[in-house]
Amino acid sequence: MIRHLLKSKIHRATVTEANVEYEGSVTIDSDLLDAADMLPYERVDIWNCTNGNRLTTYVIEGERGAGQICINGAAAHLMKPGDFVIIASWADLSDTEARDFEARRIFVDGENQIRPPR
Fold first, then answer.
1. From 10's CA, which of 21, 25, 48, 84 has a CA 20 to 30 Å away?
2. What is the rounded distance in angstroms from the CA atom of residue 97 to the CA atom of residue 107?
């Protein structure tokens, strides 16, 4: 049996930009990608805590340490700067792997810098 589990999430990040003119995707600070074990072009879900919108897109690597969370393309109509979002990635694991797996949960401050969980 294969189980579809949360692999990692960036919790309550602040959208810093929304660029309708850019091709689809989400640009994420490289520090956050490393911490969350997310790769460029990896599929992610984004849940907007501010307005309830949800979408699926892929990752583009952003500038390291800049705190960038930029929603690109048509998705920029659903999210705007200042919105709080959760960005989630997924993994397909065997039943045996899934039982010992622990998702990475990355918490950030208002500048999208990594902070310890509360």
1. 21
2. 25
Residues 88/47, Cβ–Cβ less than 8 Å = yes
Active-site residue (options: 8, 30, 41, 58): 58
Q: Judge whether 94 counts as a catalytic residue.
A: no
Indicate whether this model's pTM tops 0.90: yes
Number of neighbours of residue 112 by Cβ within 10 angstroms? 23
Please report, as a single letter, which amino acid is at residue 69.
I
**Contact, 104 vs 37, CB < 8 A?**
yes
The answer to whether residue 41 is catalytic is no
Kindly list the distances between the CA atom of residue 88 and the CA atoms of 26, 63, 93, in Å, as whole numbers in the listed order: 12, 20, 16
How sure is the predictor about 24, in pLDDT bands with cuts at 50, 70 and 90? Answer: confident
Lowest mean pLDDT among 5-14, 16-25, 63-72: 16-25
